[in-house]
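About this split. The held-out portion is used to measure sequence recovery: a designer receives only the structure tokens and must propose an amino acid at every position. Recovery is the fraction of positions where the proposal matches the reference. Here is one held-out target exactly as it appears in the evaluation file.
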């Protein structure tokens, strides 16, 4: 798992959803500085933030962390 690759996927995700760093931080309940550090690859999001990203945007953690599999989670009729 490469921090640089994760940071690139986080930045790509944010831009694809049309969010500023400020807005993403607000959506996730973290400081803007935290999002900036994630995107620079200074440090990785913690488990709580990763789960929030996955749930809020329907993103596969496997894709986010490893760059493998589909980007979006498959929805079922129960969702």
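Reference sequence for scoring:
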């Amino acid at each position: 798992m490469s921090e640089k690759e994760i940071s690139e996927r986080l930045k790509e995700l944010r831009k694809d959803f049309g969010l500023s760093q400020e807005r993403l931080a607000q959506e996730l309940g973290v400081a803007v500085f935290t999002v900036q550090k994630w995107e620079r690859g200074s440090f990785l999001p913690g488990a709580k933030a990763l789960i929030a990203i996955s749930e809020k945007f329907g993103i596969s953690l496997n894709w986010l962390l490893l760059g493998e599999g589909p980007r979006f989670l498959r929805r079922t009729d129960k969702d």
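Annotator remark: The domain at 3-66 is CATH 1.10.260.40 (434 Repressor (Amino-terminal Domain)).
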